[in-house]
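ugh ok fine here u go
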Amino acid sequence: MDAGSQRVLQYFTEIEEAAEDVLTTKQQIVDLDMKRNRNREALSALKHDMSDSEKVKICFGNMFLKFPKSKAREMIQKDQEQLDKEINDLRRGLKTKVNCVNEMQGNPELRGYNLSPLSADEMKAIHSLLKR
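structure:
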């Protein structure tokens, strides 16, 4: 292969690796979101089904363990917080990865893609200004 063909092959390989990284990150987000939804269902079931004094069985890997209902709820809530953090970190990283792929392909950067939602305090401030 001549030098020009080698450079083209290297260029396409780099783009393919970057795109693969974007797809992998998206799949991780989907997997973590499914786990977060299962945890939400479990928390909902714990709220409605039984009294706090009873013990519940929780699946860890390939075994079930009995825990007091309050301890189980606390563990699931901590897991939810960790999942939320991981998903948000992956989403923030995904934006830079997508921009990198676009840059490698010579496409312009996506406009409005780096926007972040308003916080609760910012929303309260806006509502108070609009009520005047």
